[in-house]
Amino acid sequence: MGGIEFLKGHGTQNDFVILPDAAGGLELTPERTAALCDRQRGLGADGVLRVVRSSALPGDVPGTEDSAAEWFMDYRNADGSAAEMCGNGVRVFARYLVESGLETRREFAVGTRAGDRPVQVHPDLSVTVAMGPARITGASVAVVDGRELSGVAVDVGNPHLVSTMDDDVAGLDLRDQPRFDHEFFPGGVNLEFVNTVEPGALRMRVYERGVGETRACGTGTVAAVAAALHLSGTDTGTSTVDIPGGRVTVTVDPEGSTLTGPAEFVARGELDAGWWASLA
Ligand SMILES: N[C@@H](CCC[C@H](N)C(=O)O)C(=O)O
């Protein structure tokens, strides 16, 4: 058996192993995902993006009921769990489809567990994603670094809790999982910590469900802008968001939000077939 093709890429340093699997034959177990993402025993990444034709999916994949997308982004977190959506991942996924020739258009939809996400691949290879509505679902509390921080709960297809702070988010210790209300978020939650630098400019750090602290989270930046707008009494606006891995631009609108940012590739190669088989 030959090796398994992979690429390594990132969106604002939220990094991914991309596994092309058009026919859907790859057995991507939680164990294999966790090993691939492990920075010592694997390639190292925040998550895995399996590139599979929608027609090759089993019939029961959430989000695909009304899908018109030819390609499905099967996103997995570094701990092996599947998640509904990944805003940085979908940009990398879209660039991969265009550059590999699997997609000849520059504007098309990508299927995800949160539903189809229309994308536009720009001439400079940055990508704009239509992220759907960002829904405010209530208020809750995160406990980080011994501090209790109130937050706005936002659903962007996946769950987020956004805490805005007066002191610099750079000072937070995010090495350990912050505590949150498991009754409010029974499936877990992504936690964002945000400073308003000036109107239309946010700074953010994130502790992702299923991963830990990452250098960026696309859905998290959309949640952050939606929460900041909500707290200032509106539901529409545009903001840049600076995360440790770079900058993205987010527009929030009740009709739907957009996320624009870079998508980069750094390597491609083959997984060792024996290593892969040993993880089954
Ligand atoms: N990094 C992603 C979000 C990935 C999924 C998240 N960890 C979850 O479990 O919901 C992004 O860029 O949006």
TrEMBL record:
This is Diaminopimelate epimerase. One of its GO terms (biological process) is lysine biosynthetic process via diaminopimelate. Substrate binds at N14, N77, G87, N88, N158, N190, E208, R209, G218, T219. Its EC number is 5.1.1.7. The record marks H160, E208 as: Could be important to modulate the pK values of the two catalytic cysteine residues. Catalyzes the stereoinversion of LL-2,6-diaminopimelate (L,L-DAP) to meso-diaminopimelate (meso-DAP), a precursor of L-lysine and an essential component of the bacterial peptidoglycan. InterPro entries: DAP_epimerase_AS (IPR018510), DAP_epimerase_DapF (IPR001653). The lineage of its organism: Bacteria, Bacillati, Actinomycetota, Actinomycetes, Pseudonocardiales. It is found in: Cytoplasm. It catalyses: (2S,6S)-2,6-diaminopimelate = meso-2,6-diaminopimelate. It comes from Prauserella isguenensis. GO terms for molecular function: diaminopimelate epimerase activity. The active site is at C86, C217. Pathway: Amino-acid biosynthesis; L-lysine biosynthesis via DAP pathway; DL-2,6-diaminopimelate from LL-2,6-diaminopimelate: step 1/1. Homodimer. Keywords: Amino-acid biosynthesis, Cytoplasm, Isomerase, Lysine biosynthesis. Its main location: cytoplasm. It comes from the Bacteria. Gene3D superfamilies: Diaminopimelate Epimerase, Chain A, domain 1. The keyword Isomerase applies. It is an enzyme of class 5 (isomerase). GO terms for cellular component: cytosol. Belongs to the diaminopimelate epimerase family.
